[in-house]
Amino acid sequence: QQQVKQSPQSLIVQKGGISIINCAYENTAFDYFPWYQQFPGKGPALLIAIRPDVSEKKEGRFTISFNKSAKQFSLHIMDSQPGDSATYFCAVANQAGTALIFGKGTTLSVSS
Amino acid sequence: DVKVTQSSRYLVKRTGEKVFLECVQDMDHENMFWYRQDPGLGLRLIYFSYDVKMKEKGDIPEGYSVSREKKERFSLILESASTNQTSMYLCASRLAGDKLNEQFFGPGTRLTVL
Q1: Among A76, A99, A12, A13, CA closest to B34
Q2: Tell me, what's the pLDDT at B99?
């Protein structure tokens, strides 16, 4: 059973546009929701994360929106740039455990 | 900066061979993880270790084992490699109790089993 569902699988956005990637989860025990960014040939790296006590977190051009009642969270990339082209993974975890459960990933291409 | 290194970037092995993938981190992290990454399947957890000599099975441990004799080193072992273990293998480490729960990943080892 897939504990976190990520969509879309791939995304093409024009330079300057908004990229939106969505994730949905089932287990209400999850209380930590990070996004990881992976460039070709590199391992994933933490981009931004949110806990369920807030509905939104913004860091520069990257924003996480969190909807606790719908059990969904999304990553918004404003003013998308070619350098944002990468694979993005959402993940979930709970305080009791240290292991992250990752979504299947979204490959983002930003065309110039 | 945390650095996680993996012994090989590319590895080619034969079916039935015993394969060792090594991971070393230099930031004294207690927790270490092994994932495999396959197209369309994301990152799947194979094994993790909370501390030295401790290990826990992840979601897909079949066909793998691990060893953590020293804090900085976490090894993944394929006892008898099979073609369905051809994949990208990623190691990660994390500071126990880190409020950010941030995992630091190595660059990966692309293993091909022929």
Answers
A1: A99
A2: 75
